[in-house]
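Take the subject:
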Amino acid sequence: MDDDDPRPSCLSDAPHDENITDHIRHFLGCIEIWDRQSFLEGPNHADPETSSERLQWKSDCMDHLRRIDFLRSALSCDPDEQLLGLTLELSGIAWRISTEFVGNIQRTRAWRARQGLRTGTPP
C-alpha cells in the first residue's frame, strides 16, 4: 500500500480493484486462481492504453509463474532440497486438518459471503 494513499492496495480484505500498486502481488495474493484469467484479460470495454497495460501485466505475471515453476522444478531435482518441498507440503496438509483451520473456515466463508466475495471454492 502506498503510504500517501489511505485506501488498501493489495493483500487486503477490502475491495481495491482500482488501487493496484503491484500487479504481480495482486495477481498472486488477491485474485482467486480460477479468476486469474479474467483478471489478466481485463474489461472488454477497456481503452487502448488500459489494454496495453493489461497486456504488460499479463506478460509480467506469466513470467513470474514460469520463474516459480522453474524454481520448484530445480528444487525437486536437488536431493538436498527435496526435503524442503516435502516439508512445505506436509505443513500445508497439517494446517488444513488442524482444529484452528477447520474451526475457522466456516467463519471465514460466512464473512466473505457478507462481503459479497466468493467463498474460496471454484464456481
